[in-house]
Amino acid sequence: MVQNSMNVNHKNKEHRIRISMKGLLHNPWFERVADEIKASGKSEDTDDPVDVIVYNPISIRLAHLFIRWGWSANAVTCLSFLFGVSGSVFFYPQNRWLNLLGICFEVIALILDFCDGQIARLTHTSSQLGRVLDGTVDITNFLAVYIAIGCRMMNETIPFTDEIPWSFYIWPLLIVTMLCHASQARMADYYRGLHLFFLNGRNSSNMTRAKILKSELAAQKGSPLYERVYRFFYLIYTSDQEKYTPRAQRLLNALEEKGGTVSDELAEAYITQSRRYIQLTNTLTYHIRACTLFVLLMLRLHAFYFPLVIIVLEVVKWFMIARYEKIAKNVYERFCL
């Protein structure tokens, strides 16, 4: 558990962020929004400027509205799914106005994606099911967009060729892109969770170890089928994250052997180093890659999105893993765990 001095340091950082935002925007309304976001339990460490200026002010207002209406976080996640999948249909036509309508649907889906997490934190209803559902909807929404664009590109020509159509050759490229996308998002999610674990403690990070999930799954033989299914897939998801992070696992195992308590000094050491790279996780998550794809789509340059994911974002992913593994190694050796 992270003690008072760590919390004081983080509160000072949050205060500086709010003051700088006020100076930038000359509008105290953003400070009130920042206070509401903080009250929902969300850390500003994992937000980027677009989150702070655009998405958070809208999503926190909607979160309070949905709570008054009696909506659960999972219900809002399902609503995000409906907007996301519906919006993908508008990316098939080669019509900029319809494409723009699709982008509007996807932006609404993204705002709702922010909103469901805030509802869960405000109402203290966070759960493994909600976490799995949220991640599944994110991937499904993007998969629908990929499929729509793939169908569209079958009739388009390959760049730098003499009118050679993509035809069915687009689908292997899309499959590789989607696999890279899923892997990048999975690892970004892990390091955000690990950052929050050292910042606020296990209860605030939504982190669950694979070995714990295995024991929970084994103990639920008589539970409803849907619970066993989502826990099974969550176990696969978590196991894959841990496979790529051996030094982080060594650090967490050592902490568990010492009773699971995280000292102020150790937490400060990890968080100080992690803050240098935490924005890399935003590069690999939903909304930055979505904005990139939508801009390229409107410019009729969407074919270049796929090498961007397969090459550039893969390099970012492996750089992120290398940096965070080094952080785990440094902390482990410094505190002689």
Description:
With 337 residues, this protein is mainly alpha-helical. The protein has one domain: Up-down Bundle (Four Helix Bundle (Hemerythrin (Met), subunit A)), CATH 1.20.120. The protein is built from 14 helices and no strands. It has helices at residues 4-25, 29-39, 49-69, 73-88, 96-122, 128-153, 170-200, 210-218, 225-243, 246-257, 264-274, 278-283, 286-298, 305-334. It is globular and about 65 Å long. Residues 1-8 and 13-25 have low confidence and may be disordered.
Query: Which percent range fits the helix content?
Result: over 70%
Q: Please name the CATH architecture.
A: Up-down Bundle
The tally of beta strands, per DSSP, is: 0
| CATH topology assignment | Four Helix Bundle (Hemerythrin (Met), subunit A)
What top-tier CATH class fits best? Mainly Alpha
Largest sheet: none
Number of helices: 14
- What overall form do the CA principal axes indicate? globular
The H/E string reads: HHHHHHHHHHHHHH
Percent strand = under 5%
Which segments are poorly predicted (pLDDT under 50) over 5 or more consecutive residues?
A: 1-8, 13-25
Ends apart, CA distance between termini: 17 Å
Number of domains: 1
Looking at this structure, what is the CATH superfamily? CDP-alcohol phosphotransferase transmembrane (TM) domain
Rg is 21 Å
By helix and strand content, what is the structural category?
mainly alpha
